[in-house]
Design brief:
GO molecular function, one term: endonuclease activity
Number of strands: 24
CATH architecture of the largest domain: 2-Layer Sandwich
Strand order of the largest sheet: 5-4-3-6-2-1-7-8
Largest sheet: 8 strands, mixed
Keywords: DNA damage, DNA repair, Endonuclease, Hydrolase, Nuclease
Helix content: 25-40%
Distance between the termini: 85 Å
CATH topology of the largest domain: Heat Shock Protein 90
Pfam family, one: DNA_mis_repair
Number of domains: 3
Region (Disordered): 369-391
Structural class: alpha+beta
Strand content: 15-25%
Family: Belongs to the DNA mismatch repair MutL/HexB family.
Number of helices: 17
Shape: globular
CATH class of the largest domain: Alpha Beta
Length: 621
Amino acid sequence: MSDIIQLLPDSVANQIAAGEVVQRPASAVKELIENAIDAGADRIQLIIKDAGKSLIQVIDNGCGMSVTDARLCFERHATSKLRKAEDLFAIRTMGFRGEAMASIAAIAHVELKTRRHEDELGTCIIIEGSTVVSQEPVATPAGTSISIKNLFFNTPARRNFLKSNPVETRHILEEFQRIALAHPKIFFSLHSDGNELFHLPPEGLKQRIIHIFGNNYNQRLVPVEESTSIINLGGFIGKPEYAKKTRGEQYFFVNNRFVKDPYLNHAVLNAYEEILPAESYPLYVLFIEIDPAQIDINVHPTKTEIKYQDERSIYAIIRSAVKRSLGRYNITPTLDFNQETGFSHMISPKNTEDIVPPTIQFNPQFNPFEAESSTKEPSQKQVSITHGHRDNIPQNWDTLYEITKKASSQQLAFDQQAIEQENDNENFQEKPAGKLIFQLHNRFILSQIRSGFILIDQQAAHERILFERFLQQLENHQGASQQSLFPQTVMLNPADFELINDLLPDIHALGFQIRIFGKHAFVVEGIPADLGNGMSESQVLEQLLEAYKNNQAELKISKRENLARSLARNAAIKVGTMLNIDEMTDIIDKLFACATPNISLSGKPIIITFTLKELLEKFDK
């Protein structure tokens, strides 16, 4: 019997490794830009076409590679970052595993052009599926330019599982933003299908955050800075009133490497305790500098997870630093005993003797009952009563009783109205069962039925009604629109702009009237007619976008269902809204006309039925 265990060919091993390293085009973008940063580049350009499926090109002005290095970088476990095992405990570079270039070359057509600054000619290497097609000298600028074409061309199953172009583009934008935030002193640019989405000059961290997320973030940022023997913490956090319903704008960097750490995230949220709205998440861009020997970053292929030796101390430092910054910049209520609250600083010592204390002057002969007559006649009249006779009685004295007459008439009208309402209620109770409706605590609707009564959650019911209505409008493209008197311009960051652009046909079907206005901006000319909650057009669109992204991260639902769900939750009446009889009746009628009236959008019951039998059992009858 022959041996059955054999070593895998390099091409097969590289494709297996590519499944861990390169999950989608954004993974390749991350690896290439990190290599450019490790090469010492201060100017990096990213060019993508067809959401990275057709082309991903990264151009940098780093140190470049020699002929031998250019060929060797495509071999597995080939890296310039490590020399011995001890180097794993002192890693400060971005890439060190030595698998990125080999994995990318195994599943794409790769063209590499590189030249060192001291060389006159560079090297051009073309590889297709781990096979070197050509290698020759070429005239090229100093640095490296690498192009990845036809990603996953030899792994069709992986290519078929890629999402749509807008979704893949958003993933690329996320990776790009993370790296750009971590290195604000490096110039970055991003071109997608011929359009420049980002142009980020070298700048400070605050300016980089504003350039990435928008100018309106200038007033939302609060600086954080803390130096200890364990870590050095710095960066910015967002003010509580600008918190969003999604976790998107939360960034932790450890030694300039983006990490995902729920434990550290909890430390930040704990610092916002009692000042953050429910189910809201603040913005933060925080940098941790720590000794590489105290952490292990080689626990995940994408290097986004880190293990710490002293997690509890780091947690306490982050929590206290964030809480201190919120208090220092008057985000949380504080008492400032150094603030001047008196007027003594307005008085100079030289003029203190000239100050005259205020005095009160009054006329002891003043009679308030003569005020009206005195304004009419120049001479004052006095009232005297002698021997039972009244002399000089003021005119219009009978008007003094008009107030009591008015109050008694209002009370009479109120009593009459109460009697009529009571009579109406008596007559109303004589109507057939099912028409008697009450509202409890401005939250529930109680309606009598033949077997007892039902209790309806008014917000959940309205959400269900609007959800099914919006779904029907999306199917029929017949959403009613309410024209805006003054159109509003909404500025978005590139990721949100791409998302809205992808949803534009369905948003129009819901009744929105918006159009693209320049770079990363939309003009809102109309909103759905069902939205009568008093919000502005820009607020409606922004809340719809936030709810859509939140549902997209938590629920596996279709695009149209997500839109209908997001808009229904924003447009529905909220807890605490007072409803009249007609409004409650309208909600009940429309709810029972729905396809699924009993289940809310979150999967909880909308209607609870109480029978007379259950009530009698409660009273032990």
